[in-house]
Amino acid sequence: MDPAISKLVEEISEKPPRSKLEAHAEVIAALRRKRRPYREIAQFLQEHLAISVAPSTIHDFVRVRRRRGKRTADSNEEQPVPSRQVTAASATENDVQQRIAALKRRTPPDQSQPLFTYEEDEPLKLQRKPPPTRAD
User: Which residue has the higher pLDDT, 84 or 119?
Assistant: First the structure.
């Protein structure tokens, strides 16, 4: 980036957080690490911090922060991910990619015969395909 432009960008102040939960992100993350459901987190915030929030709002907040964490590779805080989750996810993704590639390689069925016969005074009739022969 041009040094003059980067200097201008650095001079712009950051916007304040839009979410009232932003100040309590660490508390929410700690409760999620303890596998607390969003309903319990909402009750905790209401009782101890006097913040009224719906469980779905907490879910959306956590989901957005998780996505941001994946996008920013230069973040200083790296959250540890158990290795079995990574391998299971990548194995599943790899399996899906292989299945998609196999479907793309398939040749389309032979469409040389029409599927229907048309006669002016008759309804459409589906052409019956002969049963496939088994090669044993």
Answer: 119
Count of other CB atoms within 10 angstroms of residue 31: 19
The mean pLDDT of the chain is: 80
Does residue 89 fall inside a structural domain?
A: no
Q: Which residue has the higher pLDDT, 118 or 48?
A: 48
Q: Is residue 49 part of a domain?
A: yes
**Sole residue written with tokens 């913040």:** 51
d(CA 119, CA 25): 71
User: Does any domain span residue 103?
Assistant: no
State the Cα–Cα distance between residues 91 and 72, nearest whole angstrom.
Answer: 24
The verdict on residue 111 lying in a domain is: no
Write the pLDDT tens digit of every residue in 95-114: 888 889 988 888 877 666 66
Q: What is the pLDDT of residue 117?
A: 77
Ramachandran angles phi, psi of 125, nearest 5°: -125, 130
Q: Supply the range of the domain harboring residue 42.
A: 18-69
Contact 117, 128 (CB under 8 A): no
Rounded Cα gap, residues 30 and 28, in angstroms: 5
